Amino acid sequence: MDSILETAKSWLTDFFDPEIKTEIQRLIDKDQDELQDSFYRNLEFGTGGMRGIMGVGTNRINKYTLGKNTQGLSNYLKQVYGDTEIKVVIAYDCRHNSDTLSQTVAEVLSANGIKVYRFSELRTTPELSFAVKHLNCHAGIVLTASHNPPEYNGYKVYWTDGGQIVPPQDKEIIAEINKLSFEDINFSANPDLIEAIDTEVDQAFFKASVENGNFNAQGKDDFKIVFTSIHGTSITAIPDVLKMAGYNNVTVIEEQAKPDGNFPTVKSPNPEEPEALAMAIAKAEEIGADMVVGTDPDSDRLGIAVRNLEGKLELLNGNQTMVLMTKFLLDQYKAKGFKGNEFVATTIVSTPMMERMAKEYGVECKISLTGFKWIGKMIKDFPEQHFIGGGEESFGYMVGEFVRDKDAVTSTLLACEIAAQAKANGSSFYQDLIDAYVQFGFYKEKLISITKKGMSGAEEIKQMLKDFKDNPVETVQGSKLLWIEDYNTSIAKNVQTGEEKAIDIPKSNVLIYETEDGTRIAARPSGTEPKVKFYISTNATLASASEFKSVNSQLDSKIDGILAELNL
């Protein structure tokens, strides 16, 4: 605690704003627990950048922690690009303080002689990724905390290709940041280097989104969509893109259309949660809509609900949506003729059905760590190959490579194209998914997230993962353990034969068990939230669509059994 107090007192110098010093003194005098949580560590970049609670301290999002990041980034950009006119584009979402924090970031960049394009109002994360290349920038920054609670904000950095920073840039930038003290931040802005942007970039992004996500589906006039932005940024893009693509029967949930960092109508602005789409689903049932689409605050992830076999709206998970989107794109490419250099992509904790399906099409499926920065890196690392599309279980998908991050704008259009065409064919999105299960195998997944907050929570998460590794399962629902994949050591071991294989993926704190029947159990800490996550994947053969209900029930029972065995 002495070191924490010493760090806190270092923020009481004249360099820091008076209100900051007043709050820190209050914590020192009256709130030791909050003081400890605010200063016990420095916020770090995770799978989705830097994300944390807003407030004073080194473990909080504030003008000084973001200023230090930006100063380090500025120093790094000047090292890499020398005397070139360096350009950076900045966007921000609906979060509290996002506009003022983004202005602070712009000012620090300009103080370092860097040209800044800053969106004049909130914009989606995929548009920021697009804007990096569109404006020929050297980097991009977006202020967002995605679907985290209202007290959070965050900071993601994008590189010249429009993708999030990855090795070696990420570690090199972090090294520059760590060299700095807060007093090294240059806050003396040069307003002449800060330029507001808006409509011109919007229109270019909308056009590119339609070009990549529109496949001229039939039946658009007969297809009803209910859309909710859940108080986030997608209201600035998705209605326009859908209209440009020919969808005129779109009902927007007006109560959730106004951007609001309090997210007043939901417990969590997370499209993975059924409650977040409850208002939209109720409206869709009322008007007889075919599909519901909801997006998270920065519009990089989407949740969709479609009519099931009973005609009721059912929320699909990210694996299901990803599988059918990928199959649709593969069918489009197959119809034109594969050139042999195509690939799709997914992550180590997403459904194995992606690999199975790609193999059937004769297309490579590349597998990455969790986080779309790794999928973006694939595109950069393999320029001779053509990226079709890819996604991860956490409701993110990317269509083509014009955006280098998950993109709920274009993915929403793609989902509507699939569903509208299916309806015109006398089928449905849901039925097409079942048909895919018949063709490639029925894979079903379940995610369990356990939240452990604060300094003690971080230790609990660390211990839970250690216990999971030190006490491997022997069987899962009667199926013997076959493989243990340890991404910390980069070794996959066959526990029955002793065979070991190298894992050609960067090291990460992930452990995966796979049994003889293909059941997979993965565990990892969240890179952006105080959570430990367990991913369960099961599978079965589906001989015909008529057996879907019974096999689905069997897989549900199997997952429940696995959770009971693991005490989750």
TrEMBL record:
Query: What are the UniProt keywords, alphabetically?
Result: Isomerase, Magnesium, Metal-binding, Phosphoprotein
Which InterPro entries is this protein grouped with? A-D-PHexomutase_a/b/a-I (IPR005844), A-D-PHexomutase_a/b/a-I/II/III (IPR016055), A-D-PHexomutase_a/b/a-II (IPR005845), A-D-PHexomutase_a/b/a-III (IPR005846), A-D-PHexomutase_C_sf (IPR036900), A-D-PHexomutase_CS (IPR016066), Alpha-D-phosphohexomutase_SF (IPR005841)
Q: Give the cofactors, semicolon-separated.
A: Mg(2+)
According to the entry, every stretch annotated as the Alpha-D-phosphohexomutase alpha/beta/alpha domain falls at 44-182, 208-305, 317-437
Q: Which GO terms describe its biological process?
A: carbohydrate metabolic process; purine ribonucleoside salvage
Which GO molecular function annotations are given, in alphabetical order? magnesium ion binding; phosphopentomutase activity
CDD domains, alphabetized: PGM2 (cd05799)
Does Phosphoprotein show up as a keyword for this record? Answer: yes
Top-rank taxon: Bacteria
Q: TM segments?
A: none
Q: Which SUPFAM superfamilies match?
A: Phosphoglucomutase, C-terminal domain (SSF55957), Phosphoglucomutase, first 3 domains (SSF53738)
Q: Which family does it belong to?
A: Belongs to the phosphohexose mutase family.
Q: What is this protein called?
A: Phosphoglucomutase
Protein source organism: Croceivirga radicis
